[in-house]
């Protein structure tokens, strides 16, 4: 497996919120989330273009050319348009003319959902080489008048090339779960087919992300802990067998709680939420790529990935590199 990332150049610090009239402070944001700064897309940065940057980096490392791709699986909660899928724009940009391309929507858990789908496609013989991308332009769908949400999110993309593994390496275990009864705790109320865009929707900003923060926090800790347990059990492992834990980068307190539950010391946990904020489905592949680049993950490393997102969805995966 080879990885890559695509990050917008523009950085927005906590101090920059004062300039746009948000009543908050650096200290308030850090205390509640651990976030110091995040990358924000500027004009010309799209979900597809960030995905293409990440994809090309992963393909270069894997030595894979566009014509080898059998499928492109793109996870996003912020597609460039509602129809067709952003994945086909990515396919066209890459020139991957023989690949099947489609989006999946599982919010912050989406990249792990995509990896699990890709594993199944390879195992069944449907495909040999698959590009799995998480790409998000969250700045386009958050409410920049709501300090409870706008300070949390950032933009970016992460990608991986998946092929059949040998010699005891590759995906050792995976787990996915959802609970649609809790959807209204983190969602975009309007802007879809049920409540289409109109003047009233734009006026009350109901097409933007709304979140019940305390409830989401509670469920995130519980669900990510369960996901970690399920993957470890399936792989017949414990926290002691894990070399690196990469959780969804949403909140440092959720990260710490997940690590503690799994008996994994924080010095084995890769954290970059302070520099990126919550990039939704892009957060794990971005962190994974950084960890590989820095040598935190190397040949033989056993890595636990855990995510939680709107839906609610949660997922986990154990990979041996």
Structural write-up:
The protein has helices spanning 26-33, 47-62, 86-94, 110-124, 147-150, 199-204, 213-234, 252-261, 273-276, 283-293, and strands at 2-6, 11-13, 37-39, 71-75, 100-104, 129-137, 155-163, 170-178, 186-187, 210-211, 244-247, 302-309, 313-320. The chain has 321 residues and is of the alpha/beta class. The protein folds into two domains: 2-167, 3-Layer(aba) Sandwich (Peroxisomal Thiolase, Chain A, domain 1), CATH 3.40.47.10; 171-320, Thiolase/Chalcone synthase (Peroxisomal Thiolase, Chain A, domain 1), CATH 3.40.47.10. The strands form four sheets. The chain has a five-stranded mixed sheet with strand order 1-7-6-4-5, sandwiched between helices. A hairpin with a 3-residue loop joins strand 12 (302-309) and strand 13 (313-320). The longest helix has 22 residues, at 213-234. The mean pLDDT is 97.
